[in-house]
What does this fold into?
Amino acid sequence: MLILLGASVLLRFLQTAAYISLFLFSLLKLREPKRKRIAITVAINIAVAGAYCAFLFVYGQELAERLIVPIEIGLSLIVITICSADKWVISLFVMFTQFNLYLGICYLSDICTTEASGLIYQIEYLLYRTVLFGALLFFNFKYLRPRFRRLVEILGKEWQFITLAAFFFYVMEAVILYCPRFYWYEADNRWYLVASSYLVFFSVYWLIFRSISAIVGKYEAQERERILAQQNKFWEEQLEEQKNAVNAARRDRHDLRHHYDTLLSMLEGGKMQEAVSYLTAQTRRTESAVLSDVCQHPAANAILSRWAARARENGIKTEIDARIPAKLPMDDIALAGILANSFENAVEGCLRTPEGTVRFITVNIAYSVYNGAGKLYIVFENACADNIVFESGFPKSEKPGGGTGTKSIAYTAERYNGMVEYAAEKGIFRTRVLLHLSLQA
It folds into this structure.
């Protein structure tokens, strides 16, 4: 029986260590190489668990229990030091929040058990904790992490206040549950204190993050408008330049008779070299302004043909299937922004691949109308390196201040009640955009 109780204590310690580590992993940004650091953390947890159990058998339960809080805090700090890439104030907030929830789960598991002590108690206690830990971690990884990481990107000094609040709650819970004796040694006469403290805990957290979410929403709306305005201005200038280039080409064709007269005069005068130079210059000027007939839509055709030419100049095989009508119920600048940003990202992605890689870009665009509603499907595929990192669904840019293009695409898709998806798999990067276009636009 003693061996079984010892094994249950070891399992409970390992369960606690696993929960602490997984909770921190669920919200914090991890350092590279992740697998190596996680493996080191697991090894440390197992070593500390073994040492704790040995200490328990040698010195007894009462003395070992006094080390519970320092060991738990120490393990958390070790995990943060080894694995966390976030600032210390953010890591400490996650740590103290984890402890606040951990104490509540332990207390709830204890009062739900049917036995006061012994092996049955240990088994029931472990099962209740497993269920509650699993539900909490699932919620963190599935729903909470994206929202929390967005707050990390935006908030600054506010984290100091939030972390301080989490620390004070932890101290309060520890005093209620551990003083003057550990709660499991006494009759359950402090449940009202625990319930009241957690009611305050969740209320304060809810108020803090609701206020922060409102601020973040306002900030993101302003940032969205700033990026879209910046992108729109840029692509307006680009379209205007390309229109000027097309008009110049048309003027050149109109003035072709004058060029013939000039060339003929040079040839008659025996100025062969000058004639060749003049002809070469005019040919290059005309070719630079000629746009391929990629699709019927003027703005889309201008952007796609220009970027296709740039891609081919860099040795990138480019294929385009763009079935876009001459008129779309959407803003030309918005469409140009999506296509140009996607194409630019595809070209840059190809150029970052190792030497010897087959560099390619494939573009498929289709417009359809069903039940009076228009839909525009845009898919870009290109060769890419294997080390692309994603944050909050967006590929992390290697350029300082980069990432504006991908966010601009997402904001434009949101404007048209659509969606955008970025994915990288087996050396292929995909950008998928779906726009819902109202025929009344």
